[in-house]
Automatic annotation (TrEMBL):
Protein name: General secretion pathway protein GspK
PANTHER family assigned to the protein according to its UniProt record, in alphabetical order: TYPE II SECRETION SYSTEM PROTEIN K (PTHR38831), TYPE II SECRETION SYSTEM PROTEIN K-RELATED (PTHR38831:SF1)
Xref: InterPro entries: GspK, GspK_central_sf, Pilin-like, T2SSK_SAM-like_2nd
Species: Hylemonella gracilis str. Niagara R
Gene3D superfamilies referenced in this protein's UniProt entry, alphabetically: EpsJ-like, GSPII I/J protein-like
Residue ranges of domain T2SS protein K second SAM-like in the record: 262-318
Transmembrane portions of the chain: none
Domain of life: Bacteria
Pfam families in the cross-refs: T2SSK
């Protein structure tokens, strides 16, 4: 009987042990990589949450700053024009530039007092920019709806004068008139549905408060096929306007919560032409040239300028034109590391009180920042 050499047994055992060790190392490496990945995900989520909170508070501070500027502007002047401080855009600048650096006094600024080296100061990698825009310098498409004294949903009508303004605006911009027709058709439906829904909700609430179990059958029914009434300009797409049309209209038109007159001191050339029938482009250019030399302080000055430009002075009325504004759009942008945080806010100014109507926030990757 032939026996196997004893020298081969240790070699095979060593090979099995080496293979087992490699498997264990691979398993440990996989578990370590998985644990590191989970830890990195948790760190990234916490970092993103912290950046979002920081950006929100910085943009809230920027909004308060803009509101302060608008309030002080109301104290200083009764008219609004493009030569005032609020109209100057804030170009992108380091956030630390807005803070008072008093290193000799040992203040808590920059990297001092924060426990961070100068190179890791978060204020040194944060950049802020923003603008304030007068929205009453644009044609308010909300004016298309004629105001009703009783507010009844079934009595919704269109304002003929404002329909003519919208038609001239579309003609000047060479936009599809079919989209305007669709807007004029859907807008009363959306307004009627919104009014009926509001009235029904108010009636139901009043009935519950009074303990009444009977329903109000006099309220108009809500049309389930009616489009939603927009709250912002970009939402006009639900009423039939395409994205290209909205982009072309944006510098000259807007949507505000109530009827407003056009500020002739901030309106664009096309908005001025659209708001005044039979106003030619050279005459509108003359009005803009005159206001650049000296803003209009009253409608009487505007009428005098119309006469000097060869246009009828009756084109400007107190119902359609003003020299001051109440509604402003505040746009802020914060670039922090590789992220860009944006916020748009509509504010209304009543006297020296500046209130927020709505706020919209956004977020994206860092690129060449621009704020409209």
């Amino acid at each position: 009987m032939k026996r196997r050499p004893l020298a081969q047994r240790p070699t095979r055992e060593r090979g099995s042990a080496l293979l087992m060790a490699m498997l264990i190392v691979a398993l440990v490496s996989t578990l370590a990589a998985s644990g590191y990945w989970r830890q990195w995900q948790a760190w990234a989520a916490e970092r993103a949450e912290r950046q979002r909170d920081e950006a929100r508070w910085v943009l809230v501070g920027a909004l308060d700053w803009a509101r302060l500027i608008l309030r002080e502007d109301a104290r200083a002047s009764q008219i609004d024009h493009l030569g005032e401080p609020w109209s100057v855009p804030l170009q992108e600048a380091r956030l630390s530039d807005f803070l008072t650096l008093d290193r000799r006094g040992g203040g808590n600024t920059g990297g001092q007092g924060t426990g961070l080296p100068s190179g890791e100061d978060p204020l040194r990698i944060a950049f802020l920019s923003g603008t304030v825009t007068d929205l009453q310098g644009r044609v308010n498409l909300r004016n298309l709806l004629a105001s009703q004294a009783d507010g009844a949903a079934q009595d919704v009508t269109l304002s003929p004068a404002d329909v003519a303004i919208a038609q001239r605006l579309f003609q000047l911009l060479r936009l599809p008139e079919a989209e305007l027709a669709l807007l004029l058709n859907r807008l009363p439906m959306a307004w009627a549905a919104a009014q009926a829904s509001t009235s029904r909700a108010a009636s139901d609430s009043g009935g519950r408060d009074a303990g009444s179990g009977t329903g109000n059958t006099t309220l108009g029914a809500v049309n389930p096929l009616a489009p939603l009434l927009p709250q912002r300009f970009e939402q006009l797409g639900v009423l039939g306007l395409s994205s290209a049309t909205l982009e072309a209209l944006a510098p000259h038109a807007t949507w505000l919560p109530e009827r407003t007159a056009l500020n002739v001191n901030t309106a664009s050339l096309i908005a001025l032409q659209a708001s005044m029938p039979r106003l030619e482009s050279p005459q509108a250019q003359r009005l803009i040239a005159l206001r650049q030399q000296r803003p209009y302080t009253s409608l009487a000055e505007l009428r005098a300028a119309l006469q000097a430009a060869g246009a009828p002075d009756l084109l400007a009325t107190a119902q359609s034109h003003v020299v001051s504004s109440r509604y402003f759009a505040v746009a802020g942008q914060l670039r922090l590391d590789e992220q860009v945080f944006e916020e748009r806010t509509l504010v209304v100014r009543n006297g020296i009180t500046v209130s927020t109507v709505w706020r919209v926030s956004g977020r994206g990757h860092a690129r060449v920042p621009t704020v409209e």
